[in-house]
Write a structure and sequence with these properties.
By secondary structure, the chain is α+β, with helices and mostly antiparallel strands. Helices cover 24% and strands 36% of the residues. Strands 6-7-8-3-9-10 form a six-stranded mixed beta sheet, with helices on both faces. The protein has a five-stranded antiparallel beta sheet with strand order 13-12-11-14-20.
């Protein structure tokens, strides 16, 4: 427990009989960029609000450096929060918005000026001190909100979908800026989003949630390449998911074919979910494929073509830099280590 800054232990939250989160146990390291990812209503924002002190759990423990802070009010916690709606004060200029918390603490004006100047430089807004926040772009307002949180030097910054209101190009730019900021400051970021690309781009650790429970925790690479169940595989990136039967170690039956894979440890003849990523399927000559099919459609996606192939009465999504025209009969080949076998989840 000593290695963790924050630990949630069997935390649940009940709203009039409806469970928002169920027995969530999560450990967060110091200086980590951790992202809670999942669809709307999965419990990620509720978990964030419990860490921030804006919600109290129905049961469980919340430890900060080993001390239970479950009853500590938000203003006494070493955390600050940036919300999707930035909640800037429209009657205050940029400097006054950022300095607000420092003035509440009654710091010396010279210290306030120095701290605000330093944080404005960090978020690339030097020279904007006297600007009205209403005159700023969405990206600039977001930086002011982050600066206002960071100037108080929290040990943890909570961010609840702060990029959701920005356009695509600005959002991508801010993803990189946030990650660079976190590394530079060396503080813990806990980030909530439903955007899988955002999570993969910025995070050291991703926590995938669904139905109020954690489905998988791991690095972006582990979450993408080794999903633990069909929900994670389908939510993180595109996937082809089929029913299969694990005949024995390293051998799975998909449709009517026995196919080599790299997985083991399943019961003999155990029903499983089989996941194959679109970029891992190779289109080959019809006679060379494990499966045979017909290309139904081709869409140019910029960096690759997306082809839909009808094979075994299923539509396979395939991504490739090489295009085959619609109507062609083709073979489909997958290397054994690109076939991911997962236990079926029973509700």
């Amino acid at each position: 427990m000593d290695n963790y800054l924050i630990s949630l232990i069997n935390v649940s939250k009940d709203y009039n009989g409806a469970e928002a989160i169920k027995n969530v146990t999560l450990n967060i390291k110091k200086n980590e960029f951790l992202t809670m990812l999942g669809p709307s209503g999965c419990g990620k924002t509720t978990t964030l609000r419990i860490i921030g002190g804006f919600e109290y759990p129905s049961s469980g423990k919340l430890l900060f450096e080993g001390t239970d802070i479950i009853n500590l009010p938000p203003y006494k916690r070493k955390v600050n929060t940036v919300f999707q709606k930035y909640a800037l004060f429209p009657h205050l200029n940029v400097f006054e918005n950022i300095a607000f918390g420092l003035k509440i603490k009654k710091l010396d004006p010279k210290i306030i000026s120095k701290k605000v100047g330093r944080i404005l430089e960090l978020v690339s807004l030097s020279g904007y001190e006297k600007r009205s926040v209403n005159s700023l772009s969405g990206g600039q307002q977001q930086r002011v909100a982050i600066a206002r949180a960071l100037v108080n030097e929290p040990e943890v910054l909570l961010l609840d979908e702060p990029l959701g209101a920005l356009d695509l190009k600005l959002r991508k730019g801010m993803q990189l800026e946030l990650k660079a900021m976190q590394k530079h400051l060396g503080i813990t970021f806990i980030y909530v989003t439903h955007d899988q690309e955002e999570a993969l781009t910025m995070s050291d650790t991703i926590v995938v949630m669904n139905g109020g429970m954690i489905q998988q925790t791991g690095t972006p690479e582990a979450i993408y390449n080794e999903p633990v169940n069909a929900f994670v595989a389908d939510f993180i990136g595109e996937s082809n998911i089929f029913d299969g039967v694990m005949l024995e170690d390293y051998q799975v039956k998909i449709f009517d074919k026995m196919v080599r894979c790299s997985d083991r440890g399943f019961d003999k003849n155990e029903p499983v979910d089989v996941v194959i990523r679109p970029e891992d399927i190779k289109i080959v000559d019809e006679t060379e494929g494990i499966f045979q099919g017909i290309i139904k459609s081709v869409t140019f996606k910029g960096v690759h073509y997306e082809m839909i192939v009808q094979a075994k009465n299923m539509e396979w999504i395939i991504h490739s830099t090489k295009m085959r025209p619609a109507g062609n009969s083709v073979g489909l080949w997958v290397d054994p280590y690109d076939i991911h076998i997962m236990k079926k989840v029973t509700c």
